[in-house]
Design goal:
Layout lengths: L3 H25 L10 H20 L3 H16 L8 H25 L5 H9 L25 H4 L5 H27 L4 H21 L2 H18 L7 H19 L5 H24 L9 H5 L48 H53 L19 H4 L10 H51 L1 E3 L1 H18 L3 E6 L4 E3 H22 L3 H6 L6 E10 L2 E8 L6 H10 L5 H6 L2 H5 L23 H10 L3 E7 L3 E9 L4 E9 L2 E6 L3 E5 L6 E4 L2 E6 L3 E7 H5 L12 E6 L2 E6 L2 E9 L14 E6 L5 E5 L1 H5 L15 H8 L10 E5 L3 H13 L3 E5 L2 H10 L4 E4 L8 H10 L8 E5 L4 H10 L3 E4 L4 H9 L11
Parallel strand pairs: 2-4, 9-18, 13-15, 19-20, 19-21, 21-22, 22-23
Antiparallel strand pairs: 1-3, 4-5, 5-7, 6-7, 8-9, 8-16, 10-14, 11-12, 12-13, 14-15, 17-18
Helix pairs in contact: 1-2, 1-4, 2-3, 3-4, 7-8, 7-10, 7-16, 8-9, 9-10, 9-11, 10-11, 13-15, 16-17, 17-22, 27-28
């Protein structure tokens, strides 16, 4: 029973709110102002009258409620009143306001209505007030839904207000939902009840403050009911919890501010308010009524038809707080961290733009780093050239710096003006000619180049240090901005628990949800896009995974099933595991359904491994449910879930065991914009492979690859083998056959763990993923996006699941030709054991060495060069090369002499030699062939022709180095 102090506090709240509202109406309805009010002003007046109607009914003052209802009806129709009729209408409105004000003052003094106050008004407006009866509102017919204006459900609030109010309100709703779920499990937990009360109270105050009347009204009644629970006047029941969840869902609809949802909101709002008010009335009826008519006792006599609009905040009704002592404030939601005074709200779009700019900065940083790498390479080349020049200068200086002229010279300019030649001997005075001067100048130039190279090396070293600092700052900036978008994934878990609760009740099962890792943070965009897929997976776990209680009991399991939801960080990814202790996937049922739908032939289905059969559940429209309902059996779900995960560059894996349960593992990047990928080369193009899909990278040793019925199978360790597919074949791009050690990227795919053979590993790189949008060229392709490499080239991001099955196509062929590189590797022949495929290019022309050398390096060959025959012979003697390419006309030792020397040496006798010369005559060709050359080409040579000639002697180059 409420104390006298509590009753008086409630009355003080009611009368204060009512008086304030009536005073606003009296001031607005000025008879001296003959102009008709605007529609917006009339709407505000209507809300005040409507709020007074509901508040009066709630506190048991039926006369005030009935008269305020008539006032609201007149205001609702006032927009159609002509200017000539408006003064008369104002007089009626002011008379009603005056009577209501007098009645409120009487209530404030005597705590009850005085029926005589209404008599004068009834006598003056008999026809208008014929419906006025101080009877319980429950006896009145329900009003039409159109009585509330659209602005009540969707107020015209400033964008700045919505920007901070909507996220804040959503946090309150999450806190309320979490408290409700905990309260349902432990109704006696007073801490949970107090937290729920405070969350509802704070949300109510926030809504009223910003002007969102509908939300304020709903949460106002939630607060009243929670106050009754807190005071021990009401017990927590399943029906009450359902009512609270219904109210939370309605508030979510209101927060969405979707105009298309207004009919649904109108249809649901009034019955929901009526149920809330009846719940409050019901708890009041159970309390004994004191002699004095108070709001509590009045509720026992009335059953209002709907919840109405309190004008102010009756939060002081919670005992033992004094009346009107608690102002409407905006504290943080329950469980939220305290916000410092320096906190500001930033829109998600602005954070998105900041992250985009950071992404561009990452690309620019990579481009600068690439330029710096090129400078370092050029510096090393200049150093090499400088050393060669020093050797040349040293030799030239030794030969010419201090030699005497062969003759003193003839002519007028040859004799020194001072006649020194006649006065000094050769050993007494050094004499210099042009060769001597050139030798000195070359020595000075060499010293200058050495000094400049030292400065250049120092500058490059410092630039590299600065680049490292920029990289660290960029990484820190990216992480900090990305962290502002991070939210605990536990914000989703509350929704999952509610979804499981409702689903379990629908299918008649007893299910418990166990969470762990709910504090794990992930990008808010990832959370938003994962919400629906994860909720569907949780429902699937209940509908398809958990057995009915009787079946579980017969199997020796607890009747209550359990769904586990676990989240944790792994490197730069977040892993979400959804596991149930149910019956596991029914493989035989999946097989039968696949045969019935014509997806596989019966004989093929009998041979298919379980992993391939499980993959069928991801097909659109595939469902093993025998009954079609709202929750299951429609075949809509797993294909959408996989698409949502792959759109996030994530991976989904399934583990199932009959009779034990099923576990789905989702591996996703922490952020949607910037991620880490493995850059590879296949054919002539570079591709990015998302890191979450990669298990490991292997360079198989000789003999590790085997040919099994036309398939390349790689043996890993002792007991694991996997099939290897060339990326070029999966992508349908052309490539030049290659041999040697083939890098293999081990991936987790819909076919299980498989290997992807690539031509080159380019290393890990931070990439900024750009969506391909609606480009028709890439629709249905195996690419999930694109990025920009440091050179400014577009690099496609591979969608791993689509590599093996594209929409509208059959699965990857079971038997396919083994590509040349894998065939050679699997054969284990001599070519597979070669560690280096080196080419020696001998030509006196620097341009030729540069052009041909880069051409061969681009094809993947390792190339060394020599500038003349003598240098070429020295290098061929010191190192074993696979092929030697030589010019014919060179200084010191021409090409014919070089070929003869190479053929005379046992180590190079069988080495293929290709002549590349401008001499196209038959005489030169025959001379070279007689010395034992392997091929004869003339300049200029096409790249394809040169590569083809080389491939006759060397199967293929190794992957070029980045």
């Amino acid at each position: 029973m409420a104390s006298d102090f509590d009753r008086q506090a409630l009355l003080n709240i009611f009368t204060t709110e009512a008086s304030d509202g009536l005073l606003k109406l009296a001031n607005a309805l000025d008879p001296r102002d003959g102009s008709t009010p605007t529609q917006e002003a009339l709407c505000e007046h209507f809300i005040i009258a409507h709020s007074l109607t509901g508040a009066s009914a709630l506190y048991g003052f039926t006369g005030c409620a009935s008269l305020a209802k008539i006032l609201a009806r007149i205001l609702e129709q006032a927009g159609t009143v002509s200017p000539a009729e408006w003064p008369g209408t104002v007089t009626i409105l002011r008379d009603i306001v005056t009577i209501l004000t007098a009645q409120i003052d009487n209530i404030n003094q005597k705590s009850t209505e005085d029926p005589t106050i209404f008599e004068d008004l009834k006598a003056r407006y008999t026809h208008l007030l014929r419906e006025f009866e101080p009877t319980p509102p429950s006896a009145e017919p329900a009003p039409e839904e159109a009585s509330l204006p659209d602005s009540y459900f969707r107020p015209d609030l400033e964008a700045e207000i919505l920007e901070y109010f909507v996220p804040e309100a959503q946090e309150y709703l999450e806190a309320i939902s979490s408290c409700l779920l905990r309260m349902e499990k432990d109704p006696a937990n007073t801490d949970t009840i107090h937290q729920l009360f405070r969350a509802a109270h704070t949300l109510k105050g926030s809504a009223y403050t910003v002007g969102f009347q509908a939300i304020g009204d709903l949460t106002h009644h939630l607060e009243d009911i929670m106050g009754a629970i807190r005071d021990g006047k009401m017990q927590v029941t399943a029906e009450l919890t359902d009512l609270f969840f219904h109210a939370v869902d309605e508030v979510r609809l209101l927060l969405g501010r979707d105009p298309t949802k207004l009919p649904q909101i109108r249809q649901e709002f009034s019955p929901l308010q009526q149920r809330l008010q009846q719940t409050a009335v019901g708890q009041a009826e159970k309390a004994p009524a004191p002699p004095v008519v108070t709001p509590t006792t009045a509720l026992t006599e009335t059953k209002p038809r709907r919840e109405e609009f309190p004008v102010a905040d009756p939060a002081t009704a919670e005992p033992p707080a004094p009346a009107a002592a608690e102002p409407v404030t905006l504290p943080q939601p329950v469980g939220a961290k305290e916000v410092s005074q320096g906190t500001v709200r930033v829109s998600r779009d602005r954070l998105e733009r900041l992250l985009n700019l950071v992404g561009e900065l990452v690309i620019g940083r990579g481009r600068l780093e690439q330029r710096l790498t090129v400078l370092e390479q050029l510096a090393r080349q200049v150093q090499t050239y400088k050393n060669r020049m020093l050797e040349t200068v040293r030799a030239f200086e030794q030969k010419h710096a201090f030699t005497l002229p062969a003759a003193t010279g003839t002519g007028e300019g040859s004799q020194s003006p001072l006649g020194l030649s006649a006065n000094f001997g050769a050993l007494e005075f050094d004499k210099y000619d042009d060769f001597n001067i050139l030798a000195r100048r070359m020595t000075e130039v060499s010293a200058d180049v050495s000094e400049v190279m030292a400065q250049l090396s120092t500058s490059i070293h410092k630039a590299r240090e600065d680049m490292g600092l920029i990289q660290q700052m960029t990484t820190d900036l990216r992480d900090e901005i990305a962290r502002t978008r991070m939210v605990p994934i536990g914000s989703l878990f509350t929704r999952f628990q509610k979804a499981v609760r409702e689903m379990a009740r629908t299918v008649g099962k007893d299910v418990e949800v166990v969470f762990s890792g709910d504090s794990t943070e992930v990008d808010a965009g990832v959370v938003q896009r994962l919400a629906e897929p994860l909720i569907h997976m949780m429902r699937n776990a209940v509908a398809h995974g958990i057995e009915p209680p009787a079946v579980r009991k017969a199997a020796g399991k607890p009747e209550k099933g359990t769904v586990y939801l676990h989240a944790f960080n792994q490197h730069n990814t977040i892993v979400i595991e959804i596991e149930d202790d149910g019956a596991g996937l029914n493989i035989e049922k999946i097989k039968a359904k696949a045969i019935a739908l014509g997806l596989v032939r019966p004989e093929r289905a009998a041979e298919m491994p379980s992993a391939d059969l499980i993959e069928l559940i991801y097909l659109p429209g595939f469902s093993t449910s025998e009954e079609v309902g709202d929750q299951a059996g429609r075949g809509i779900g797993m294909d959408v879930i996989r698409r949502a995960v792959t759109d996030l560059n994530g991976q989904i894996d399934i583990e199932t065991e009959p009779g034990v349960g099923t576990k789905f593992t989702l591996t996703l990047p922490l952020t949607m914009l910037i991620s880490t990928a493995l850059m590879v080369r296949a054919g002539d193009q570079q591709y990015a492979m998302p890191l979450p899909a990669i298990r490991e990278v292997i360079v198989p040793p000789p003999g590790a690859m085997n040919d099994v019925s036309g398939r390349a199978v790689l043996q890993i360790g002792e007991g694991e083998a996997l099939e290897v597919f060339p990326l070029t074949l999966l992508l349908g791009v052309e490539t030049t056959p290659r041999a040697g050690p083939v890098p293999v990227v081990v991936l987790r795919t819909p076919k299980g763990v498989v290997g992807i053979a690539v031509d080159e590993l380019l290393g890990l790189q931070e990439i900024v993923i750009k969506t391909l949008g609606s480009l028709r060229l890439f629709q249905g392709s195996c690419y999930s996006g694109a990025t920009i490499d440091p050179e400014g080239r577009v690099v496609l991001v591979v969608d791993v699941p689509s590599l093996f099955k594209r929409e509208g196509e059959k699965a990857f062929p079971e038997v396919h030709p083994l590509p040349e590189p894998l065939r050679l590797e699997a054969a284990g022949g001599p070519q597979a054991e070669q560690e280096n495929v080196g080419i020696l290019l001998v030509d006196d022309s620097l341009s030729v060495r540069k052009f041909i050398g880069r051409m061969l390096e681009a094809a993947g060959y390792k190339v060394q060069t020599a500038s003349d025959g003598e240098e070429g012979l020295r290098k061929a003697t010191a190192t074993s090369f696979q092929v030697i390419i030589a010019d014919l006309e060179m200084p010191k030792m021409n090409g014919y002499e070089l070929i003869q020397c190479l053929r005379d040496r046992p180590e190079t006798r069988s080495t293929p030699i290709i002549v590349l010369t401008t001499r196209a005559g038959e005489k030169h060709r025959q001379m070279a062939q007689s010395l034992g050359v392997s091929s004869y080409l003339t300049k200029p040579v096409e790249e394809r022709a040169l590569i083809k000639e080389i491939s006759q002697f060397v199967s293929a180059p190794t992957a070029a180095k980045p």
